[in-house]
Specification:
The protein is an alpha/beta fold. The protein is 32% helix and 22% strand. The chain has a nine-stranded mixed sheet with strand order 4-3-13-12-14-15-16-17-18, sandwiched between helices. A five-stranded parallel sheet has the order 6-5-7-8-9. Strands 19-20-22-23 form a four-stranded antiparallel sheet, with no helix packed on it.
Length: 538
């Protein structure tokens, strides 16, 4: 049997083989970052004390120089961050998008900040006892619900409560803070109504729904949209500008229901936001075409810091419903793909579920396995190949269906499931692994772009706003003079480190020493390149 090819067929075959050869040549380039930069990622102090390691810092802010405190000397609080860093620069750009049934509804920067100011006026008029900048319970506003756009208004102190919090955790938060004003969505209204009798809560703000949903006449019931509408009719009020040390939020961990509240100031948040920006390589800078999607709960400080950072950069921020184990992962991914994020933030367990979903639907393909293995091999040589023939034949379809096809990088908190290599290979995305601590306003250390050598417990180097050292943990068998790497308890000092635990001075003294070092409870070793490798908890 013979096969005859006409001119068109020859041309098509030549094009296919030519494209394959071109992609293969492009895939053979050198590493994405110079090995010298990978091998020396932190600045190391020359002096160390007995029982301690040297002090490690970001190479951008080495030992002997001031730590990073702000993005702009005119910005010292979240109020100034919004009005100086955001409002004047990106007024008509889309800012916040809330998923509603099948699509996202978007509000511009101007619309969002106008609503914030109207809400401030409306709520101030409706609740005269709600004070600003008082640093006590008269400033507190609790927010219980899914991640939303209704956090941090002027000089009030927000107390975020995650949507999946237990009743015992919510009760603990209310009683510890003496909370009087609580915002809640209707999905959690019945739970709250069963908890607040006999507590300090006297005002409920419904984030959605109508006031008629609450029959209890012993509490004042307000509706968010009504407060905004009322505020729009009131004369502009003098805005309360917090100073750097004013409390911005008190965060309670829903993962540990009885833990004390972490007091975070405006200074903490501003420094953390600034650090996220300066650590980006020039080619990865964020702009108006970027979109951030956060799958971290509302009580996660890191998620809020990232929302602020992307807002400062002119990007849009999408709020999708939190994933629930009771729903099909394919349904959740439809909401993710609809947002078309360029940046995604999540914990390891959700990404492990998404990985398993992809493996189930595509993992049996020869092209998938072959391409995946090739990509892992390239990453071992320091290069993330994004334009191979396997991308053209299989991976781009997965990228489009799962994340909308525009994903640039993922922030990954505590990679216990070892998912980072998978998402780098399949999604063509950088994966930034972080050590998340509420006490450090979200992030303590962060891996750098283009570092593909670290594994799940490697969490990078200190942020520009803090410094890190190890202290002996002899009872755990770890010492700072261990070989080949120093080992011990991770300690952090910096501008992002919390003020203390709310009304728990003894607990604060247990973890925060007189020199400002916070003892995290994490055990780790510092690798020769200056990165932190976690060994477990004390």
């Amino acid at each position: 049997m013979s096969i005859e090819l006409d001119t068109v067929s020859y041309a098509l075959l030549a094009s296919i083989f030519g494209a394959t050869a071109f992609l293969s040549l492009r895939s053979s380039h050198g590493s994405d970052i110079h090995p010298i930069l990978l091998n020396s990622q932190a600045d190391v102090s020359r002096i160390r004390h007995v029982g301690e390691s040297a002090t490690y810092r970001s190479r951008m802010y080495p030992n002997g120089s001031p730590l990073l405190s702000t993005v702009d000397r005119n910005i010292r609080s979240l109020h100034e961050l919004f009005h100086v860093g955001i409002k004047k620069r990106f007024s008509q750009q889309p800012f916040l998008g809330q998923f509603n049934h099948a699509d996202y509804q978007w509000a511009s920067y101007d619309k969002t900040l106008g609503d914030v100011e109207a809400l401030f006026r409306g709520l101030s008029a409706a609740v005269p006892g709600l004070q600003v900048k008082s640093n006590d319970a008269s400033s507190f506003v609790g927010i219980y619900g899914h991640h939303s756009s209704s956090c941090h208004v002027h000089g009030w102190v927000t107390i975020p409560i995650g949507a999946k919090s237990t009743s015992s955790h919510i009760d603990h938060v209310i009683k510890t803070t003496g909370l009087k004003v609580l915002a809640v969505d209707t999905a959690h209204l019945d739970q709250i109504l069963s908890l607040i009798p006999g507590t300090s809560v006297n005002t409920l703000i419904l984030l959605n729904g109508a006031a008629s949903l609450v029959a209890d006449k012993t509490v004042q019931v307000l509706v968010l949209d009504d407060l905004v509408a009322k505020g729009q009719k009131l004369a502009p009020a003098e805005l309360a500008v917090p100073d750097a040390n004013t409390i911005a939020s008190i965060n309670f961990s829903s993962a540990s229901p009885s833990d004390p509240g972490v007091v975070l100031s405006h200074k903490n948040y501003v420094a953390a936001v600034a650090s996220q920006g300066v650590t980006l390589p020039q080619q990865q800078r964020v702009g108006v075409n970027d979109r951030f999607l956060c799958n971290l709960p509302i009580d996660n400080a890191f998620g809020y810091v990232l929302t602020l950072f992307f807002g400062c950069s002119g990007a849009s921020v999408a709020f999708a419903p939190e994933y629930s184990q009771s729903e099909r992962v394919a349904t959740y991914l439809e909401t993710v793909a609809a947002a078309q994020p360029t940046v995604f933030a999540s914990t390891s367990p959700l990404l492990a579920v998404i990985r398993d979903h992809i493996e189930q639907h595509y993992g049996g393909s020869f092209l998938f396995r072959r391409g995946y293995d090739k990509k892992l091999a390239n990453m071992e040589n320091g290069r993330l190949v994004t334009d191979s023939k396997y991308d053209m034949l299989v991976f781009r379809d997965i990228q489009r269906k799962v994340f909308g096809g525009k994903l640039r990088w993922i922030y990954l908190e505590n990679d216990q499931d070892q998912v980072a290599p998978f998402f780098r290979a399949v999604m063509n995305a950088q994966v930034i692994q972080v050590l998340n601590q509420t006490e450090t306003c979200g992030t303590t250390t962060s891996s750098i772009f283009y570092d593909y050598q670290g594994h799940g417990t490697t969490v990078g180097v200190p942020l520009p706003c803090n410094e890190v050292k190890l202290m002996d943990a002899a009872d755990q068998g770890y010492r700072c003079d261990d070989l080949p790497n120093p080992r011990g308890e991770v300690c952090v000092r910096g501008i992002n480190v919390f003020q203390g635990y709310w009304q728990a001075p003894e607990l604060t003294l247990d973890v925060l020493d007189a020199d400002g070092w916070y003892m995290t409870g994490w055990l780790a070793e510092i690798l020769p390149n200056g990165t932190l490798n976690l060994l477990g908890r004390k």
